[in-house]
Input
Amino acid sequence: MAIADGMRDLAHQIETATDSIKTLWPEKPRVGMILGSGLGGLADNIEDGVSIDYATIPHFPRSTALGHQGRLVCGQLAKTPIVAMQGRFHRYEGYAIHEITLPVRVMRALGMEVLIVSNAAGGINPYFSAGDVMIIQDHINFLGQLPATENSGTASLPRCHAKTDIYDPHLIDMAQTVARRANFRVHAGVYVAQRGPNYETRAEYRYLRRIGADAVGMSTAPEALVAAEAGARVLGLSAITNVCLPDALGETTGAGVVETAARAAKKMEQLVLGILISLAESAGNRENGS
Output
């Protein structure tokens, strides 16, 4: 299929999914969230909203990963209209990048201005501990495919992605300020996205650390890239679920990752709520002209 035809089909999918959501929740979200493994509990705090199973939204994939509920929760959190994904989609589930990133495009079409994307990740930086939170400053994308852009050229030669500063520095500063006020430490570093589904070998951990990675997972990069290119501000947060020291590797299991992510979720919740409050305050200041 030519890229132009593919983009027209994608535009139709976005419109159909967006209209379906609007029939159940007609508000305009300011913030979108993608909640990764073990972190979906934050959506339980959303008030005055609706929960929509992915299976009922046209063209949405199905979430099959451990710890991903597979529903869209729309409502109010910290007096902010929000739409949250409880569960995401991965390359290792068999999905193409355009399917993984479709919900981000839909959230943007609904009106999302800020995307907060979270994940569970293995810590490669030796100064990290299980249960820590890392703010993503940048990423390395090893997923093997990039999402199509709305500005694609011909079928044989699509244009390059122009967005390089994906993670918003002001949101990063805001998250660090919230953590300091809450009296807990956060790290800032580089996230590397691998296709998976596997945990890396000792040699792979050494390689990833050598090229500049601080944490490794199997998601986030495509969603963040699409959101930034669409004009949304992006904040990425990683819950460090295990420490990947190549000379002292312990056993890592999916259940253990989810359990540790749930422990880190308390810090993540404090960060997200603090950021939402700060965003609401800054919006109020702009409206008042201060």
Observations:
- The longest helix spans residues 254-287.
- The mean pLDDT is 85.
- The domain at 3-283 is CATH 3.40.50.1580 (Rossmann fold).
